[in-house]
Specification:
Two copies of one chain form a homodimer.
Chain A: H1 8-16, H2 22-40, E1 43-46, H3 48-60, E2 71-75, H4 102-109, E3 113-118, H5 147-154, E4 160-165, H6 171-177, E5 180-183, E6 203-208, H7 211-220, E7 238-241, H8 252-267, E8 271-274, H9 284-307, H10 313-319, H11 327-348, E9 353-357, H12 377-382, E10 386-393, E11 399-405, H13 411-425
Chain lengths: 431, 431
């Protein structure tokens, strides 16, 4: 098998056992990119010579961290010292940060090769869409805003890649591309050097092709309690299936994904119950949107003042507070979110895990829309960890995933539960 | 009068009326720095030729924004594209960011001259102290971590300067140096390009020598409701004097400052009442510390991995979670803070403004300690706007201020109230 088809965890093991060199893995990824990226267009920047040089250096050294030799893609709203960071904005095409973002520094120091930058929705917040196409069907979006990262991992161009989520930008592309992803607890990963949109919502996460892949990266970030986790048995596991207050937005494929996941878990011996959230959660998406847009004003004011009329109108609109979001609306939203976060954590005590839709269904056709993030916004604002797991192929033959969710700061436990659930939910094991 | 002694508001008016050039103002500030900074050591970087060149360019143009021609100091944890950003860290001595921080871009585009970088506690979070000395008595600290910014504004070296507050780094130096400061509502000013310590607490603010100075900068940041504010009369104003749950930490000078402010307001016709916060607020400082240190782990992990043993042990300690802060402790702290924030806003409905201590008293002797931030941590975590107002000279002849506080997102109203209260509280009008 070509090394690019290995999961990160499998590649790491082969590198550790000296059955695979980092250089061979990088070359395989680069060959895959050369072969496929003319169609998929996941990458905004790759410098093959630089990637190979990094890999050779790593091959000379003993393993320095959990990600030794593993190539990593970086969403192009995240700063890299050795590559441009364009934000997919016409105003940043030649921008070269002086310093790696915090998350990039962590994986680089943990042995990763930064393979390149992946295309993104402009500033991960609006404006221009990525050029990336869904590798399962090029006529469809891969989702956004982490478009390139989701597609690149799905298409075997790189085993791991960073995304970010402010609304639904990490988990939605995972579902649309049939890959795994984690949006960690807010605050558990440094957001320094990733474009600011909403300090309250912005969260750095990553893609992989297995839960073990996601966990490898979590080790690099020293997530709490990782070492203390015991293997989880699906038998008897208390699973809450939560349709969320937005279930009417799920189409037939989205409904089928959740029902299929629930059915598979039940047949595997889990105790599956439906969880209906209290009515106040119905205001969560509106609150998330208010906070995101309201904080987006100050966040895009520097760009609005610096670039004026050439800046995309969506960002000027935020800086101008076109939605007329008042301070009272902000406070009301923060307070509702905080109240629901406390309630959600408390509800979670009765279950081992919450299973929820990741997207309304399959990836829409065309690149004009990156799809609806109605099932993501609430969990972003709640600051809860979410792990996306592929589940079915929908009516159009495209992947649809689900997400598992836990209370804040239980990322390690959620990954342990995910490791048990994934083989049951993702039976086709596309990856 | 030498232009450097003008407040920002007075200088702006003279520049607008063409009685003062930007170049003359900058030259006056530079002369003051040349005269005084050998003693005060507020600045880590000043390039006089560059500052004068910026000023000359501005003198050629019509006013472009509310800060036209006003020199601005920038705390050296905040990125500047045309100057180093050293973080006062041995590991960043030669660091040159490729891009201005969001807050710097806003004031630059609003007409400010970036005069230079001001010394700071390392990363604004621990480690090395600034070399800055209190201009009122060089044997004393100016406070921290915004040491240089507070001292530079106090010593007439620059009319305006950015600071940051994660614990008490904005308001405390204001009190110790006898200047005005605002710590805005969290989220109202972009924190992009300022060193990350705690995303939940980090707040960019600024110093001036009058409330009108603070308001000028707030205009540049387009604070909500500024234009709608009516002049406030002290007569009949409902003032809550809040000793906070930490009143036992106030020394005689600190107690005198609060009592003096209350007495002056009462004599001016305000309806002054004492406000005792509910018992749960007693846990606020502990919660703030837990959140700050707990988020500091992920925030300093990139530095810990990159620099290893040469990084100051305080930051390695955070990255290693030496305080053993658990996820449950984080969640408990966030939930207490959110609960208290809602309560505080609700309490504020019965008053026009809350007056609280800014520091326990005068600036301590020596530079080993930057003083206690016991009266700041709670309000940082609550995300409420705070404005520091000078009040008295303490037992050692050093300034002691107080702070006025309002509910979240009422910064404009707080500045309007502050404009009315300042002449009453700051009768000596040192600035």
């Amino acid at each position: 098998m070509e090394p690019c088809f290995l999961t990160a965890a499998a590649a790491a093991a082969q590198i550790r056992d000296r059955k695979l060199t980092c250089e061979a893995l990088v070359r395989s990824c680069l060959a895959r990119i050369a072969e496929r990226d003319g169609d998929v267009r996941a990458w905004s920047y790759v410098d093959p010579a630089h990637a190979i040089a990094q890999a050779r250096e790593l091959d000379k050294r003993p393993a320095t961290g959990p990600l030794h030799g593993l190539p990593f893609g970086v969403k192009d709203v995240i700063d890299t010292a050795d590559m441009p960071t364009t934000q997919n904005s016409p105003q940043y095409q030649n921008h070269r940060p002086a310093k790696d973002a915090g998350c990039v520094a962590v994986v680089r120091q943990s042995g990763s090769v930064i393979l390149g930058k992946t295309d993104t929705v402009e500033f991960a917040a609006g404006g221009r869409k990525a050029l990336t196409r869904n590798p399962h069907n090029l006529a469809h979006t891969p989702g956004g805003s982490s478009s390139g990262s989701g597609a690149a991992v799905a298409d075997f161009m790189v085993p791991l890649a960073f995304g970010t989520q402010t609304g639904g930008s990490q988990i939605r592309p995972a579902s649309f591309n049939g890959v795994y992803a984690i949006k960690p607890t807010w605050g558990a990963v440094s957001r320094e050097g990733a474009k600011l949109c909403s300090a309250y919502c912005d969260t750095v996460g990553w893609y992989g092709r297995s839960v073990a892949d996601l966990k490898l990266v979590a080790e690099a970030f020293r997530f709490r309690d990782l070492a203390a986790q015991q293997p989880v048995s699906v038998k008897g596991l208390r699973v809450a299936v939560c349709k969320t207050p937005y279930w009417d937005k799920a189409d037939a494929s989205g409904q089928k994904a959740l029902a299929t996941a629930a059915g598979r878990l039940e047949r595997a011996g889990a105790r599956v119950q439906e969880l209906e959230l209290p009515p106040k959660f119905g205001g969560m998406n509106h609150a998330q949107r208010t906070v995101m847009q309201g904080e987006g004003g100050p966040a895009f004011l520097p760009e609005a003042l610096t670039f004026g009329a050439i800046l995309h109108e969506e960002f000027r609109g935020m800086a101008d507070n076109k939605l007329e979001i008042t301070g009272a609306m902000m406070v009301e939203s923060y307070d509702l979110i905080a109240d629901c976060a406390k309630t959600f954590d408390s509800i979670c005590r009765d279950y081992d895990v919450v299973v929820a839709p990741a997207t309304p269904g399959e990836a829409p056709e065309g690149l004009q829309s990156t799809g609806d993030w109605v099932f993501n916004a609430m969990f972003t604002a709640l600051h809860t960890p979410c792990v996306a797991i592929p589940c079915i192929k929908g009516a159009k033959g495209l992947p649809v995933g689900i997400q598992i969710v836990g209370p804040r700061y239980t990322d390690a436990r959620l990954l342990a539960v995910g490791a048990a659930l994934a083989p049951v939910i993702d039976v086709d094991g596309t990856h």
